[in-house]
Amino acid sequence: MIQTVVKRDGRIVGFNEQKIMAAIRKAMLHTDKGEDTTLIEQITDHISYRGKSQMSVEAIQDAIELELMKSARKDVAQKYIAYRNQRNIARKAKTRDVFMSIVNAKNNDITRENANMNADTPAGMMMKFASETTKPFVDDYLLSEDVRDAVMHNYIHIHDKDYYPTKSLTCVQHPLDVILNHGFTAGHGSSRPAKRIETAAVLACISLETCQNEMHGGQAIPAFDFYLAPYVRMSYQEEVKNLEKLTGEDLSNLYDAPIDDYIEKPLDGLQGRERLEQHAINKTVNRVHQAMEAFIHNMNTIHSRGGNQVVFSSINYGTDTSAEGRCIMREILQSTYQGVGNGETAIFPIQIWKKKRGVNYLPEDRNYDLYKLACKVTARRFFPNFLNLDATFNQNEKWRADDPERYKWEIATMGCRTRVFEDRWGEKTSIARGNLSFSTINIVKLAIECMGIEDEKQRIDMFFAKLDNILDITAKQLDERFQFQKTAMAKQFPLLMKYLWVGAENLKPEETIESVINHGTLGIGFIGLAECLVALIGKHHGESEKAQELGLKIITYMRDRANEFSEQYH
Q1: Please, which residues bridge with residue 197 across strands?
Q2: 520: closest CA among 560, 476, 566, 564?
Q3: For position 106, what pLDDT does the model report?
Q4: Cα(223)–Cα(315) distance, integer angstroms
Q5: What does the alpha-carbon distance between residue 221 and residue 205 come to, in Å, rounded to a whole number?
Q6: Would the pTM count as exceeding 0.85?
Q7: For residues 391 and 356, is the Cβ–Cβ distance under 8 A?
Q8: What 3-state DSSP class applies to 486?
């Protein structure tokens, strides 16, 4: 006797004989002879009692066809088979329509889903084919039923759902010094440690580009100025050595001589070693500028993920007060200001200026001149964004102005959005850590569903009840994805889980990444606060104090629940 049924999406549900009866009745009503209640009951009973305890939908439909063909009502069997074929075609039609929009390079929500990917190229089309077939697989086999329902009804959006089965993580802040000092192997061939600024800038590109193939989110460098600064001095020393060859003089006393700033100046009026030193500085500045120009150009032209998507990249800088670090910042800003190609604004890297009193914010600060330059550049190019290290929640008690590695205790962000700093399992730092996955709650829909309630207090109370339920589902979904991600093996991420993620250097290739990815974060986002408030009380937070107060209450509630989830799921 049939007890349970395996549906097409993999779910197992209780057997319901009424569905068999309804299917046969529908076929009969499309024939000239009409309905035969006795035959319907006979076939239903026969299939129900003689079937296996668990059967698939397809197996049950096969049994219905067989019983109808054995009966005197061949006309019903014909209609049932035709209807079943139509349903199969209809199920495939949606996939066909999606695929044809990709094939024909139509400009729609599918082909424009990702801003830094060209879905019209062959590689881009292959990515979209894979993406659109993977998402239903995730819905059917990897999501729990309440999560699937929330996604289906647009209460939550799971970001990068097509990458869900790969177990990939979202983003990481690259400890670039590891790559620059030791080189790395990216699977085919290896690179040597950098010795000059041009090589360092190229390795920074390659690190970001290679890791992009192992992750579904963005790549960032947390201390671009600090990491590249040593290679400015190396390049300067190389220029001094070139002068030694040219002049035959011993200029070794210039190798490590103090340099207040790398500023290009005319050589007119300069004599002897002062002239030679300034010439070496001028050559170094030009090389740094070209390296930064190349870095920006590469970040907007080098493709990853099968050759169709530029790297979603970010760089953080602003607090290195050394002459070399200042040179890196000045030239990346100058290159950004000039633009790429025909002067257009570069999309990547997204640049974040780390602002801090005593370093670069006040007129008396060492890097104040560069802060002003950053403001000038962002006025024209939208980058850099600005990150306030003095905010109480962005401070680290270990930060010291005289610490040459103080960048380790500075927060860095991904595209000025993803914030990874606190760590319940390790040091409070952004470096070698990132977000694991994130999902967005559609708070507008929750509010719209409450609009029919006339009493305002009851309306708002109902909204919070709905929000509370969706928050629980979202946190559960993120943890379920984490439980899936942690089963991946280190060898699946040859760069990320060898050089870039905190603690990964201790993993063996066949070991799972479970022991190290708990240093990452899970993120709950939201969309549509203004529209949510309009639906609830008629005005958004820019239109009334009351709406502003309610908006803060909603966001504070979500923040508090997120803190609870951090404790609940560790």
Answers
A1: none
A2: 566
A3: 59
A4: 7
A5: 10
A6: no
A7: no
A8: coil
* Interior angle at CA 394, CA 389 and CA 398, nearest 5: 90
Q: What is the pLDDT, as a whole number, of residue 13? A: 83
| Helix (H/G/I), strand (E/B), else coil: 148 | helix
Contact (CB, 8 A) for 517 and 501: yes
Determine contact, residues 134/165, Cβ cutoff 8 Å: yes
Q: Report, in this order, helix, strand and coil percent for the chain, each rounded to 5.
A: 55, 10, 35
Mean pLDDT by 10 residues, the chain (570 residues): 82 87 89 89 90 89 90 88 76 60 58 54 63 78 90 94 92 94 71 90 92 91 98 97 96 96 96 95 98 95 71 95 98 96 91 97 98 98 95 95 95 85 94 96 97 96 97 98 95 92 94 95 96 97 97 98 96
The one-letter amino acid code at 171 reads C
Q: Which two tokens stand for residue 329?
A: 């910042």
Q: What is the DSSP secondary structure assignment for residue 420, as one 8-state letter? A: -
Cβ(373)–Cβ(318) below 8 Å:
no
The two beta strands, 4-6 and 12-14, are: antiparallel
Of 498, 473, 429, give the one whose Cα is nearest residue 561: 473
Residue owning tokens 């209807």: 83
Planar angle of CA 268, 324, 196, nearest 5 degrees:
95
Q: Which residue has the tokens 């003089």?
A: 249
Task: Give me 430's structure tokens.
Answer: 């952004």
User: How far is CA 396 from its chain centroid?
Assistant: 26
pLDDT at 136: 79
Dist. CA 138–CA 140, nearest whole Å:
6
Q: Identify the three-state secondary structure at position 439.
A: strand
